[in-house]
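In the current project phase, work has continued on tokenised descriptions of protein folds. One protein thus recorded appears below exactly as we store it.

——
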Amino acid sequence: MNPGSVAVVVTEDIGVPSWDLYELSIPCTVFGKPQPDLADPWYDLRLCGTRESRRDGSATGTGLSVRTRHGLDDLVGADTVIVPSVPDPCVDEGRPLPQELITALRRAYDAGARMVSLCTGAFALAEAGLLDGRRATAHWMHTAQLAERYPKVRVDDSVLYVDEGDVLTSAGLTAGLDLCLHLVRRDLGAHVANQLARRMVVPAHRPGGQAQFIDLAVPTTDDGSLGPVLDWARAHLDQPLTIEDLARRAAMSLRTFHRRLQAATGTTPLQWLLNQRLGRAQSLLESTDLPVEKVAELSGLGTANNLRHHFLKQIGVSPSSYRRAFPRTMPEASPYPLGSRSRGGAGRRRVDRGASGAPVTPGATEPDD
């Protein structure tokens, strides 16, 4: 399965501010280093700059300037286009974005590219009209400006990222990493995304609906107290665990355990446990030929009907459709081509996707599992 090409937009003309440098480095880290033992081929990454960013100039801020070999014309033909950020004056002072950038983004989208923004990159997608009528997010410090400037956009300032199928947006900083790993999960499956996250020493999966605002006001004497019990839960997902069991193992009251887990992860204990079970089921569907009934048992979801219910609700497709999308022997032509679009601008087609980006066939009914 070929995940295709990723074009990353570089908009700064003189130097890259330290704040924006982080967002720029995220897609370079996730998509730019080949991982042949996880997936071969890997993504084809290119950095595409505006005319200004390709000129020579003295660096400011961090003392680092970025010069690119590719220009904005190279956005057209890419399978995925990512705008990590836009210059601060374009957000804070309303300075117009380069018209050549807006035109290139529209052309890339019309050619079938999957469009992605990290943090303030949402302002570029909004200016191009690609967020009109869509739900979108950005760093919470800038969402009010985004909503005021682009009233046609349904801005959600409370989530880490939003997946609208062929247009995706994320909050700032680490949320951009969550979104990029989400893209790998969409394209190459949960196993590849989990292994990549492990190499990067980051959480394998934070759902996009998780809150941007995570209360970290946990007493320092209790730091790490949840780690052992959560690790234990992951190792025993095939057992009928309850939240009461986890609270008891953590030597906490149910109310205290609920409060501290939600403060640490941004989600409820019940949803956290369900996310872990679904993640285990995804890995088993991708990496084994076990019957769906056995997958449900080993992931702790009990029955095939229960697994099917949660898969359709959370993933957007049935377990059997998910398995076909990520065959163990990756053929050249999958019945569900998850690499977003085939290479090349001409003839590429959009792929309809379910609630979490998994592909579905328009008008088709899900087969029985």
